[in-house]
Amino acid sequence: MENLKDFQESKNLKELENLKNLRVVFMGTPDFAVPSLKALVDVGCKIAAVYTQPPRSSGRGYKLNLTPVHRYAEEMGFPIRLPPTLRPMSTISEILSFKPDLVVVVAYGLLLPHALLKGVKYGCINVHASLLPRWRGAAPIQRAIMSGAKTTGVTIMQMDTGMDTGPLLTWTKVPLEETTKGLELYYDLSQKGAELLIRTLPAYLAKKLKPKEQLDQFVTLAPKIEKEEGFLDWSDSATALERKVRALNPFYSTYFHYKGERIKVLEAEVKEPFLYFMEEERGRALSDNLEISCSWGIFVPTVLQRPGGRPLNRDVFLRGFPIPAGDTIK
Predict the structure, then answer these.
(1) Tens digits of per-residue pLDDT, 151-161?
(2) pLDDT tens-place string over residues 69-97
(3) 3-state DSSP call for residue 221?
(4) CB-hemisphere CA count at 13 Å for 208?
(5) Of 14, 40, 225, 272, which residue is the least packed, with the fewest Cβ within 10 Å?
(6) Cα 226 to Cα 229: distance, rounded to the nearest angstrom
């Protein structure tokens, strides 16, 4: 683990004792953030308040759903705040009124204003699911898999007013395999981020870490995934489409259209990745087993789902909904 080589004693109980008097305001939203909040609680930090996104309506009844961080904080009895923005000075004043020694941010969804960054004793630090400066932004896990990256990881950084632009404190690397799925990577990095946070804090508070500025030449961005990105475009390569399926499911749907239906693809394989198809040949079922031609290679869905149906293995799916060889798939 880089940048902690001279401070491995941070695992010692003596070092962790220093965290028991630490007053923390925690900011996070999805279940990715919950392990970090739990880890702070487990080592005895005093959680002064928890900030998370407001509940959002979903489903047929438009029921309001609390965020995972909100639910955990409610169970623990922590003060909870749900501001839609942190910009008003009244909101900043309220945060500072909790007298935090440190603000910890994990997948919160809002930028922190300068007045808040400078008003906290030990500043504000962030747990980010990539090896910064690669994959700054809202969707680092999905973008890393979609890009075909061989490595990703978790970074602990000091926050500034930019989007994931602050100095780096510590980081840990995680290899990406050709079979790595977005969901398993999501939970793996959430746990590794929590562990790295606790290992980092004693050294950070003791000022024994030297923050490292990010290098602009290595920056890549990970913007929010839009729903339409789930569409499987046969002008892409089969390899790129298979990565998209692994990266986006189950967070977002990956799909194609056939006979007026939107068919979800939950898992897929690649066949003949270097076989080239002319534009007019792309998007055609090459066999009754649903092998689809792309710009390069053959894309083979292995788990599919019709609207209102349940996920089915390809053989079962095709028995009830055949897609004959030669048909065009949009």
Answers:
(1) 999 999 999 99
(2) 999 999 999 999 999 999 999 999 999 99
(3) strand
(4) 15
(5) 14
(6) 6
